[in-house]
Amino acid sequence: MSWFKRVEKGIVTPTDQKKETPDGLWHKCQECKSVVTMAEHKRLLYVCGPCGHHDRIDAADYFDFLFDGGRFTELDAELTSGDPLRFVDTKEYPKRLVATERNTGLKDAVRTAHGLSAGQPLVVAAMDFKFIGGSMGSVVGEKIARAIDYARQTRTPFLMISRSGGARMMEAGYSLMQMAKTSAKLALLSEAGVPYVSLLTDPTTGGVTASFAMLGDFNIAEPGALIGFAGPRVIKETIGKDLPKGFQSAEFVLEHGFLDFIVDRRELKQRLADLLGMLQPVSAANPEPREARRTPSKAH
Amino acid sequence: MLLDFEQPIAALEGKLLEMQKLADESDVDVSEAVTALQAKIKALKKETYANLTRWQRVQLSRHPERPQMLDYIGGMVDKFVELHGDRTVGDDKAMVGGLGELDGHTVMFIGQQKGHNTKERQYRNFGMANPEGYRKALRLMKLAEKFNVPIVTLIDTMGAFPGLEAEERGQGEAIARNLKEMFMLKVPVICIIIGEGASGGALGIAIGDRVLMLENTWYSVISPESCSSILWRTWDYKEQAAEALKLTAIDMHKAGLVDGIVKEPLGGAHTAPEQMIETLKNTLLKTLKELGAIAPADRISQRIDKFSAMGVVVE
């Protein structure tokens, strides 16, 4: 016999109405539970002051703080997905796309743009995890490919911000070939001598890790990001043991030699400017800037 | 081993054998009945294999008696010299490579070997390569490029190995680097899916001037079982997942994601391995000749353009 009786049954909020972060005035860190105002949290670029936990943010947020004054020109903003395989699982793929577009206000899982960052031109492609887990289908592959082409043609450094669960199953074979396509474009960019910085954020796994995310001239990551090829659950099932603590974290990946450095989001813009500033790509108008600087003037 | 759709055919073939045995032992003339039965078997075979479902083709691609990498090497290559090791970590037994002569032409062969029996399968890690396997493959490709030798890769894998050490040693980076480097290889590259072509583990050695699939193979971003377990939260929908993924040679060719299909003997490669090996050998010789006529720089740009055009978007 209980003292209290539940009048209504259980929790009745449907999942799609639950929110990870409340849109209120306050933000509570999911790691250390410390509380700051939303305005302060935003000012800190969604990084927790006391513990340094990096919240997952959108492409729009990166554009906002990476481009000077938040000004940028978006590339291929209208590109959307076809349904070449007429894929049906528990839902038809086009219906899933329409519903996701409505819920997120996004066209697909990546946005690409160019503008000035700390005064230097930069092309940025940033992924949106909330669009079907940041999965890579034809639109993601094509937009990244075109952004790389733009970077190559204008000799502008390219920054890729990955945040993805990997391939988009609903595009099956087409999805797989986006790995090939983006790698082909990066091979050309590399040949042209234009710098490519790959920033891996939480999470970066599967086909994205096994293609463009690991192909940077500089591979860098946000602290604590999950980075791997196979997902932790799959590995756990394969080896039949629990995974060691910190396995597949950015720090683990750095330790094993696959990252150049880990960067706090609040320092990202400056670190990029420092790094890329030392690597002016050789421009067509001024083909040998370094050589020219070294040549002593004959007038004196 | 018999697959369920092979059983009715095997039953008739058993009957035929009995009948012939009976004819040998007695004076009864059964020639008419034998001819009739042979015709019946042929018709049933034709009908069965013309109407295979996608899942049935997946089953054929995994048939334990299906010829594998080393069977093709043994059957079509003279003077094969196997080469080992990635020069950094070790030698991956799941990824086999070496130089061989194909009708007088030197070719670098690279591919996954699954193994035919339990012991061999364990030794080969079921054809699931670790990062050192992909790095070994790349080392051999660069070697081939140096000596102007064309490359043939034979793909047959359930995927890159999803293990703890594989992650530590950078499975993602190893595959990614292969994709990028393979686009720039100056020598002809031919890739053949001979069994299973699962995701990045297959693609990691499948960037080529010609990518061909044997008739009863599959190539996609995920296996039907894993797709089912992710989308339906159970393995029970694998047949449905195979249909949805459109992963067969016919599907992939129709989508323009592979360049062609190599015909298998009626009943599948495992029913007449020698015939299959001969067919593939002829296909390789013909394709090598075609590719040899193209200038290296053109081959590279055509390779890049081909993969760059893959995908369906709405502007």
TrEMBL record, chain A:
Cofactor(s) listed: Zn(2+)
Cross-referenced Pfam families: Carboxyl_trans
Keywords, comma-separated and alphabetical: ATP-binding, Cytoplasm, Fatty acid biosynthesis, Fatty acid metabolism, Ligase, Lipid biosynthesis, Lipid metabolism, Metal-binding, Nucleotide-binding, Transferase, Zinc, Zinc-finger
GO MF annotation list: acetyl-CoA carboxylase activity
Superkingdom of origin: Bacteria
Cell compartments where the protein resides: Cytoplasm
Main subcellular localisation: cytoplasm
Subunit architecture: Acetyl-CoA carboxylase is a heterohexamer composed of biotin carboxyl carrier protein (AccB), biotin carboxylase (AccC) and two subunits each of ACCase subunit alpha (AccA) and ACCase subunit beta (AccD).
Role this protein plays: Component of the acetyl coenzyme A carboxylase (ACC) complex. Biotin carboxylase (BC) catalyzes the carboxylation of biotin on its carrier protein (BCCP) and then the CO(2) group is transferred by the transcarboxylase to acetyl-CoA to form malonyl-CoA.
Protein's name according to its UniProt entry: Acetyl-coenzyme A carboxylase carboxyl transferase subunit beta
TrEMBL record, chain B:
Keyword presence, Cytoplasm: yes
Pfam families listed in its UniProt record: ACCA
Domain of life: Bacteria
Broad enzyme group: transferase
Catalyzed reactions per annotation: N(6)-carboxybiotinyl-L-lysyl-[protein] + acetyl-CoA = N(6)-biotinyl-L-lysyl-[protein] + malonyl-CoA
Pathway: Lipid metabolism; malonyl-CoA biosynthesis; malonyl-CoA from acetyl-CoA: step 1/1
Domain CoA carboxyltransferase C-terminal, residue spans: 36-290
Described purpose of this protein according to its UniProt entry: Component of the acetyl coenzyme A carboxylase (ACC) complex. First, biotin carboxylase catalyzes the carboxylation of biotin on its carrier protein (BCCP) and then the CO(2) group is transferred by the carboxyltransferase to acetyl-CoA to form malonyl-CoA.
Family: Belongs to the AccA family.
Assembly with partners or alone: Acetyl-CoA carboxylase is a heterohexamer composed of biotin carboxyl carrier protein (AccB), biotin carboxylase (AccC) and two subunits each of ACCase subunit alpha (AccA) and ACCase subunit beta (AccD).
Protein name: Acetyl-coenzyme A carboxylase carboxyl transferase subunit alpha
Protein source organism: Hymenobacter jeongseonensis
Lineage of source species: Bacteria, Pseudomonadati, Bacteroidota, Cytophagia, Cytophagales
